[in-house]
Specification:
382 residues; alpha/beta; TIM Barrel; 2 domains; three-stranded antiparallel sheet; 16 helices; 16 strands; binds iron/sulfur cluster
């Protein structure tokens, strides 16, 4: 079902320094002047897009990065002012800011609340100092604790923490202690990510070139995932998406858009959009992005305009939708694509992957075992 709701993603591509595993689009930068110029550029991009979205209601805003919490309260207020000036933001919109413990303080938290931010996502990754050091994070375990407590004291009642497993030298017990400590601190949402060692990062070099660290074997990585999910379920968190758990009613509305075939506009270098039925992406190079904005042109990278066939769009719908525990609705599929899912895909998939994928009434979904080998099952649909 299409709605006129819209999500906005605003990318803040600055970090104090690069973490040792990071291949996200972010640059080391601590210059307030550069942050200010960047907020101006993103605001101009929003002005350029405003007319296209004038009949849409923004029901989620996600300010991600990079490290958005590097922006001063003044620049952050300016950014939120531009969002509200250019788009119709619903009164009950979910507004999330991503942050890192080493760059948050009470003044920033107060500014977020004052601007209507109602969800804070904190990149904790681990409560073990050795893992944090290996990852090249700037905070330690104590700062992680203090930041969560500070956010709660400031008035945040919807907090996500990101945790990471599969870190070289991480024992299963160390990881589960991190999960237990996360649960103990009581955030409403906990995301779990398995570390991907990306080529070109210092951590990849340590593991695969210098061989000074050993990767975590897949079988241990899976054990870490299962045991963590079990602990979270016991504590009342709902495992609503492969990598995400939340207390009931605290699922991320913005992230659910990506998995539910809903539309969003992305701002900033490298930001992706799915809007008006089209998928496009901004220039990733900051210089190209800024130069387009200065010339009052949209910073869309024409070489990356993604033209998907109807069949590929159906694949995206199924592939992303099956990430959710509830899976996908066959009725919704039909109303979007005007065709039955099982006239496009072989119904024998259900037999071939018995125990991994189920059809109950109208919903097609992965079982717990299916979530574990999701790529194998999903490959049937792409
Ligand atoms: S804080 Fe996040 S975006 Fe920044 S370098 Fe670390 S992992 Fe990358």
């Amino acid at each position: 079902m299409t709605t006129n709701n819209l999500g906005l993603y605003i990318h803040i591509p600055f970090c104090r320094q690069k973490c040792r595993y990071c291949d996200f689009l972010s640059f080391p930068c601590t210059s307030e002047k550069v942050y200010g110029e960047y907020v101006t550029a993103v605001s101009m991009e929003m002005q350029q897009r405003k007319a296209d979205a004038e009949d849409r209601i923004v029901d989620s805003v996600f300010i991600g990065g990079g490290t958005p919490s590097l922006l001063s309260p003044m620049e952050f207020r300016r950014l939120m002012g531009s969002i509200r000036e250019n788009f119709s933001v619903a009164e009950d919109a979910e507004i999330t800011v991503e942050s890192n413990p080493a760059s948050l303080d009470r003044d920033k938290l107060d500014a977020y609340l004052d601007c209507g931010v109602n969800r804070l996502s904190i990149g904790i990754q681990s409560f073990d100092n050795h893992s944090l050091q290996l990852l090249g994070r700037l905070h330690d375990k104590n700062e992680a604790f203090q930041t969560i407590q500070l956010a709660r004291k400031a008035g945040f009642d919807n907090i996500n923490i990101d945790l990471m497993f599969g870190i070289p030298e991480q024992a299963v017990k160390t990881w589960l202690d991190t999960v237990r400590q996360g649960i103990f601190l009581g955030p409403q949402h906990i995301s779990l990510y398995s570390l991907e060692l990306e080529k070109g990062t210092p951590l990849y070099r340590d593991v695969y070139e210098k061989r000074s660290l050993f990767p975590i074997p897949d079988i241990i990585d899976r054990e870490m995932y299962h045991e963590a999910i079990a602990l979270l379920k016991q504590a009342g968190y709902r495992h609503y998406e492969i990598s995400n758990t939340a207390l009931p009613g605290k699922e991320s509305r913005h992230n659910l858009k990506y998995w539910s075939y809903e539309e969003y506009l992305g701002f900033g270098p490298g930001a992706s959009s799915f809007f008006g039925g089209h998928r496009f992406k901004n220039f990733s190079k900051m210089s190209q992005y800024i130069s387009a904005i200065k010339q009052r042109k949209l910073p869309t990278d024409e070489t990356l305009l993604e033209h998907y066939s109807e069949m590929e769009e159906m694949g995206i719908y199924v592939f992303t939708g099956l990430r959710k525990a509830e899976g996908i609705s066959l009725r919704d599929f039909r109303s979007r694509f005007d065709v039955d899912l099982f006239s496009v895909y072989d119904p024998a998939i259900l037999r071939r992957h018995k125990g991994l994928i189920n059809l109950y009434d109208d919903q097609l979904y992965l079982t717990d075992a299916g979530m574990d080998v999701s790529n194998t099952v999903m490959a049937e649909f792409v």
